[in-house]
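ok so I'm stuck.
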Amino acid sequence: MFQQIFHLWLMSFLLRAPEISLGLPFSEAVDVWGVGCVLAFLYLAQNLFSVECKYQMMKNMVTVLGQPQDHLLRAGKYSEQFFIEEEGEDSPSWRLMTAEEYTAVNNVETEEEEGFIELPNSLNGLIHASTLSCVVQIHPKLAEMEDRMAFVSLLEGLLHLDGDERISPRQALELPFISMSHLREDVHSRDYLTTSQEAMRVCPTEDSVHCSTSDSGYSGSMDEVSWDSVEALDFTSDTSELSWCSDLTINSRDTSVWSSIGDDDTREEVSCRSDKAADVTAAATASSGAVGGGDVSVNQCTPRPGVLGPLKSLATFISGSGALGGTRDAATKTSFVISHKIAKNSKPFSEGEFVKECLVDSAALICPEKKEAFEQVPLSRLTVTRRIEDIAGNLELQLQHEVVSFDFFSLALDESCDVRDTAQLLVFIRGIKDFKITEELAALRSMKGTTTGSDLFTEVDACMNTLGLKWDRLAGVTTDGCPSLTGKNVGLLKRMQDKVTEIDPDQKLVFLHCIIHQHVLCKSVLKMNHVIDVVTKIVNFIRARALNHRQFVSLLEEHETEHGDIGYHTAVRWLSLGKMLKRVWELKAEIREFCEKKGKDIPELSDEDWMADFAFAVDVTALMNELNTKLQGKGLFVHEMHSLVKAFMRKLQFLSSQLESNNLTHMQTLKEVTPSADHLCRYSSMLGALHGAFSRRFEDLRMIEDEMHMISSPFTCSVDNAPSDVQLELIDLQSDAVLAEHFKSGSLLDFYSSLKEENFPNIRRHAQKMLVLFGSTYICEKTFSVMKFAKSRYRSSLTDDHLAAVLRISTSDIQPDFDALVKAQQRLDFSH
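replied:
not stuck anymore, here's the structure
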């Protein structure tokens, strides 16, 4: 019950923002609204919105500012106290209740405020609300009018109905009314500018106005008071009002409002914000020199003469007091930025405390005056955890907004277990919109039970539903080829094709087996185990015992070799075999010497036939590592990877023919051992077998080879081999010399983006489908490497949700919206 009362009476009627009245989430933007109300009061000598009746206040807001947007009214807890939702032609719409409807719904009579001003239809009506006779005698009419327009522009920003769109104090200080940039540019406004600058410094009045407070102990002339003095007033004192010796006394607390809320301590705590605003209002009212005096009529929308100068000072003071909020925002944003870097580099969340300690110590040495600002940056472990959660949510939200507009997309899927043996399914998405490619982590789905095709399909379907992806825009799926993914009857891919067929019977998905995986599998036909096993034993003999390892490293240092050590071979590391073979070959002399000293007999090192096979293995694995490295990388198109594979296959044929001719030009390691003709014949046949394995493994690519060729080389491909729906368009394309030059000078994406939709719709569509395909699951493998590091045996308690957040941040190319995160944090957490 108290929470509801707290929300409703957080601000007095004088300063109450619409989000308070409507029951919306609120932030420091309510204070910005309060500043606008204060300035409008000083300008008009009357409240802009009624303070006697909640309904009249809301009606005044709608009259002057328009009705709040529908999404605000739908979200407001108390919107139905003021507005009625009605069915419209397209969608439901809202309207303000009549006074009678309000009374019937809320059982409260509306009250018309006596002597209330006649409101304009918009804030712009305040510009021409009165004559300028009192001002023209001193200042040119044009300068005063321009300044009024600047003032109203400031009010429009301060009194925006949507708190998220309301300007910040820092933005307010940059507006022309305060900066007076509009006056500096006009020479005719020089006198007016000078007077305004004087007013901003001291806020003088025609008569000497004295002020006093019961507790502050101050008594003096306003001519002696700067706004620093006003800021120094004790706004938390028990004084019930701030009395200025003028014709008006403004209560700093509306006791009728607070009497219904809790005890005295509660009322004092809750009313702190409105106390200070009301006190500043009283101070500025007195400084304007026109409160309660003159010929101003309060029942007309009439600004008081000469008030704009002092208003500049008040606006500067109150907005400037938002520097504290700005400092807090900067500290919050800093914590988000640092937390983002912690997650980006897969560091423990507790590293934030260490980073903060370093920042504070550095600030104490470099800029001691800024040390306190660095101390305000929240970087505790729990705070960093929340920041990472929020950043990951922001990235996912941005991705959701982006995927809605995809023309086509494809998925890369892979599954692996983390250190806790939880099956983790990675789903990456590559989408295309107007030939702009987006490649992001769609989801990390943790699977505690079985990982059958049915289980995997359930997770993928949930991922697509979460992002709002449509099945009819799915172009293809790339996997690592495991049975649960590729099963013909119950595998994931079969279920995905069935799902697509239900929507569009003519749609056929392109299923690709990761090119890199197939490339690695092909080397098994070389049958080099007799070489690999011996080399592995040699490495294990040296590395398995610490003493052997130390002595071998010392031996290498004595010989001043190029390499200082040898490494292990790990099957899951694609390049490790070739690197190990090459390193052992280059250090074979030192290894032979070391083994002799240790009494370890390695007869193969003296066997010429075995050494020839060893040299051949070094050359072949080096070639395969070179191809593997080229196939790795983010953003490669499938036709580019297919071209690399085809080039490698041609190299195999070329090298095979050279070996038959006893030509070792491109086999540098094999050339060192001068193999026999029988060896060369056997090596040539092994290369032929490797070529055959590549041909069999990449059969799925041959099915789309013609279409890939058409997209990558549209001006040289055969029209006969092209799909029937693009053949006529392809003829037009190949006949256009201008487009041919454009194709040569720009990127593939730029070229297809330049093609007009009305002339080449089918070519563009086919290009999008091909360019969006994943050629490999390299990005999944790379992310699993990050996962192994982020969730290691030292951080095994990392939850699945936090692991997903870390992986999303570490792999994403999307920049987090830190400003939106800070604004959301203002709503959710006032304690930091």
